[in-house]
């Protein structure tokens, strides 16, 4: 029986997120496009047309606005904007500016991410983030994004999940493939330093473009839970994989919190979830409360004065009733954090669309289904439900 409702604060961001490479299609100048077509990379399927959102972004925004969402986080693609070193495409910059204008025209506040995992092939060939001059090259790219973000964009994310970039770089340097059964591989420390420097440079550029823009970056929070007696082990494990990136956000306008599940840690490191635990299509443990714990841990590390935005949270499932249940639990955890005084400014679900999940289309995170042949968009019941909450900002609370 419902006995109270919590109203999220006025101006609270209520939306969904996407990433360019995962939805646009035919991102042929990116490092990932090359990797997807390299037999030695072991990628199960290439992105190809993805959701064809490069051409159908208006349909996507129309649906989100109709459903009741007020915010849309999308990324711009560096490999399109700068397909060759120093060669900036005016047409592509204009394309992404049209997306910003299109969002505003539909009543959607655009949150623009400048880097979401992919880089131009030429940048990778130079050595990527740890190459000489890499930070300056990224800053130059951000400067050239000025026409996209200068007007009407309130929030800009510089780099998405830099801790995952460093983890993937560590795997590559060690010649390893795949993740352990629980936890994350050790991140490459040189890459860690490089992406932090790139972020700080990008923040300066964005503020020079428009001082009113709120700028930050987003961290993949693994919700590390210490088993009894493993508190110090957990803290040492978490620090290079997460906390150094949270601490690097000091002085930013906000920090993006992204979480999906939890990771228990014992004396010997991460512990695999029990065999009988419910798992999602990504084989992660079903754990809706993760986002609340991620918000609290982020605030503990960086301080309660830092504005927090949930920039990704969701579940890969082909059972939409479980998606609604997951979001119900997740939003209750966010509401609890707000009630406890955390400065949470918004919640953006992952993902707006069933999309390309870095090697496979099988994990379906989307609120909106996409036909792989016709590209027809079909909102799921979860989209109607979550968008409906966006109209009222009221979350029913159930008596225990």
From TrEMBL:
Cross-referenced Gene3D superfamilies: Glycosidases
Residues of the active site: 312 (nucleophile)
Keywords recorded for this protein, A-Z: Glycosidase, Hydrolase
Signal peptide: none
Stored PROSITE patterns: GLYCOSYL_HYDROL_F1_1
Highest taxon in the source lineage: Bacteria
InterPro entries documented for this protein: GH, Glyco_hydro_1, Glyco_hydro_1_AS
Enzyme class: hydrolase
EC number(s) per entry: 3.2.1.21
A Pfam family recorded for this sequence: Glyco_hydro_1
Family label: Belongs to the glycosyl hydrolase 1 family.
Protein name listed in UniProt: beta-glucosidase
